[in-house]
């Protein structure tokens, strides 16, 4: 398989991994993707791919794929074949079995953002913080676009009203790190479709405007991430980052219900530990949560 360069549509797809898709089919999938097609006025067939030859240069390679199980599965297949370089990403039109926290399925219709993003190796001190770093990058980029979101530890993105509009999932294999990102740009599950009573209700982000499409939003996220990486790649102390991130963590200082291997209890999140754990005040004691979920009490 050839290396992904610029903006490419995996038109051939692969059986059992991603459906084949033509430029005309991409255009008809959803208005968000129709804008992507319109912004690229010349598509050139190149083997199994169709390449956009007129769009502005992307800050990293982007592979658009047709309906698939999960963008992460597609990205891992490309990584295994050496076809996806650092900061490169797979953007899926839709997913049949998108993965969420604790491997829960996430409903993934066309119109939203479903990305799997190959990150470079982070400084050792930041290695446990990949999910939080990605959340901070996304939150800051969306803030610049006028959409304020907060991070519900460890990997959900919430609006001010507490509705979940996105999530982040980190997977590591072969010494490589993929960051999966989902954003509800157009639709979200109904309240009745959220199975767990403690999970936040879903919501939709405010419109991006006609001048924005899925690719331009994605390019903004990539640029922010690369700027962050270049500023911190030699850092051995993540504390300044954690101090900055705490202002974007949801529910600090409020009572939350915690579900973990220790059972279910009420505590107050008060900050982030140096390794990314959530610091909880529980009565007169302080403890650190590394695995589990929280819900506003």
Automatic annotation (TrEMBL):
Organism of derivation: Desulfovibrio ferrophilus
Catalysed reaction equations from the record:
biotin + L-lysyl-[protein] + ATP = N(6)-biotinyl-L-lysyl-[protein] + AMP + diphosphate + H(+)
Gene Ontology molecular-function annotations: biotin--[biotin carboxyl-carrier protein] ligase activity
Could you say which EC number(s) this protein's record lists? 6.3.4.15
Q: Which domain of life is it from?
A: Bacteria
Occurrences of domain BPL/LPL catalytic (ranges) = 47-233
Q: What is this protein called?
A: biotin--[biotin carboxyl-carrier protein] ligase
Presence of the UniProt keyword Cell inner membrane in the record: no
Do you know which InterPro entries this protein is assigned to? aa-tRNA-synth_II/BPL/LPL, Biotin_CoA_COase_ligase, BPL_C, BPL_LPL_catalytic
> GO cellular-component terms in the record?
cytoplasm
Keyword field: Biotin, Ligase
